Amino acid sequence: MYKKFKIILSLWIIILSSTADSKVLYQVSGRVFAEGKRVKGVRICATNEKTMKESIADTNENGLFILHLESGIYSIYCLGLKGYVIPRGKRIEVTNKNIYNLNFYLEKEGRISGRVYIKGKNTPVPNAELTAINESSVSTTTTDNEGKYVLEGLAQSESTIVIMSVSGFQVMKKDNIKVFKEQTTENINFELEDVLSVSGKVLEKGSNKPLKDVQIMISGKGMIFQASSRSDGSYELYNIPTGIYNITFADPYHRIHQDDIEIVSGKPLTLNIYLEKLSEEEIKEGKYFGVEWPKKPVKK
């Protein structure tokens, strides 16, 4: 009798615990339209802002997607379709009811193309990073081995900004670029000068081991120049105007180094830096390495 009672009690506990663990799911649905037509095969992603758990669904032949979500606040994104602008995401709160008609409308994309090259030599600059931003869209890409790039998925606009950055050179920007649907705005080119200003190596203090991927930033006079150290610790920065600047060396595993430097026309500066390794506790805390670059005033 006691044995039978134990079995029944155990079953009852299992039932209760499984009931407690189960969570109610609510249906969130909508359609994706492109040029007024329902589109199949578009992926929709929902991210719970508290747990960061993701749920995905693809549209069917009727352009319909259905997500099954727990209660919470979600960011819903349409990952887009080739040839169309990725629409803005939606922020919703799922409470105690289903949500319908969460629709996305796709419009034909515009594009921007151009080259990044060295002035006077026409030498292509590969792996330059480009970002285009306007009121309704963002696009990123990198240059190929010929220095060419194409920014896709842009909404029509008369005030698109294109930002170009490449290791060793000043970050450059072009404003008020016009983008039209189903057209490419061509020849948005960036011309770089390769006059060497600062070079050197980044090494670990004590071991003299070369440090790779250390982020180097020179700032001053409203300008920013960025570079990353190579596998042998070497780096270069180019075409910095004469003056006094602040230079910062940082990575997650070593103590940040900052200094003021003076750039003199026609006299490249050689600067070898030795970074002190952080302890495991300091690395874990992130005490000496933040998301934002530290600010240190330039000496006058």
Structural class from helices and strands? Answer: mainly beta
Write the H/E string, N to C. Answer: HEEEEEEEEEEEEEEEEEEEEEEEEEH
The overall pLDDT, averaged over residues, is: 87
Q: What Rg is obtained from the alpha carbons, in whole angstroms?
A: 27 Å
Distance between the termini: 91 Å
Spans of at least 5 consecutive residues whose pLDDT stays below 50 are: 290-300
Main beta sheet: strand number and arrangement? 5 strands, mixed
Q: What characteristic shape results from the CA principal axes?
A: flat
Total helical segments? 2
Strand fraction: over 45%
Task: Bin the helical content.
Answer: under 10%
Number of strand elements: 25
Give me a quick take on this structure:
The protein has 300 residues and is mainly β.
What does this structure look like?
By secondary structure, the chain is mainly β. It has helices at 2-21, 280-285; strands spanning 26-34, 37-38, 43-48, 54-58, 64-69, 72-78, 90-94, 104-106, 110-118, 123-124, 129-133, 138-142, 148-154, 157-165, 172-179, 184-185, 190-192, 196-204, 215-220, 223-228, 234-238, 243-251, 254-263, 269-270, 273-275. Strands 9, 10, 13, 16 and 17 form a five-stranded mixed sheet that branches. Strands 1, 2, 5 and 8 form a four-stranded mixed sheet that branches. The protein has a four-stranded antiparallel sheet with strand order 4-3-6-7, with no helix packed on it. A hairpin with a 2-residue loop joins strand 19 and strand 20 (223-228).
